[in-house]
Design brief:
The protein has six helices and two strands. It is mostly helical. Strands 1-2 form a two-stranded antiparallel ribbon. The longest helix is centred in the C-terminal third of the chain and has 12 residues. The N terminus and C terminus are likely disordered.
């Protein structure tokens, strides 16, 4: 059963689009993912559950999660432009 409220922590997925919207430097985010044991390619392909980001205890993830909530509220559920236009 899926969560009808896609902005709840149980179902919210953060995407690369959300990082860009929060104006985070991808050159800095990629090593951050490595330090926390997150797979960068998996993130690019599928996003990451906001719960996993919260588990780091890093306050810097809050703006990114807010961007994901805003994207969902705007109806841009997938938010994965890389899936259509290739990845970098």
């Amino acid at each position: 059963m899926t969560d009808p409220d896609q902005t709840s922590p149980a179902s919210l997925r953060v995407t690369i689009q959300d990082l860009r919207s929060a104006r985070y430097c991808l050159a800095g985010v990629r090593p951050w993912f490595q330090r926390h044991g997150f797979d960068w390619q998996e993130f690019l392909d599928h996003g990451i559950a906001s719960e996993r980001l919260h588990s780091t205890g890093d306050a810097l993830i809050e703006p990114v999660i807010q961007e994901a909530k805003t994207r969902i509220a705007a109806g841009l559920v997938s938010g994965r432009p890389e899936a259509q236009g290739g990845r970098k």
